[in-house]
Amino acid sequence: MPSLRPILLSIAAFLAVLLMATACETAPPVQEMSDARQAIAVAREAGAEAHAAAELIEAEKYLESAEQKLNEQKYAEARRDALQAKSKALSARELSENKQPDNN
User: Fold this and answer.
1) What are the tens digits of pLDDT across the range 10-32?
2) Domains in the chain: how many in total?
């Protein structure tokens, strides 16, 4: 009968790697933060302050939350909030562009 030791060691090694991979993120979400800031700037340029103010405010709140989480080194939460900020800003831009009359 084969020994259980190699199997148990393999399982333990797998669990250790899995735990390390999911326990924490070590890199700050630099790209996500930049993308969110750029998306908010583009939404403003598209007139979101006038045509999609609620969505723009939500985007700014998510970005503010992401910055706070980044300062606290809660990188996974910061990344999540930055992605939400970008998404809200893109929605604000789209709504704003759809509400404006054509400039033809």
Assistant:
1) 887 877 766 665 555 689 999 99
2) 1
The conformation of residue 26, written as its DSSP 8-state character, comes to: -
Residue 1 lies in a domain: no
CB 48 within 8 A of CB 93: yes
- Supply the range of the domain harboring residue 41: 28-99
Cα torsion angle, 26, 28, 31, 35, sign = positive
Is position 78 within any domain? yes
The answer to whether the CB of 33 falls within 8 A of the CB of 83 is no
Count of beta carbons in the 10 Å neighbourhood of residue 97: 14
Q: What pLDDT, in 10s, does the model give residues 49-97?
A: 999 999 999 999 999 999 999 999 999 999 999 999 999 999 999 999 9
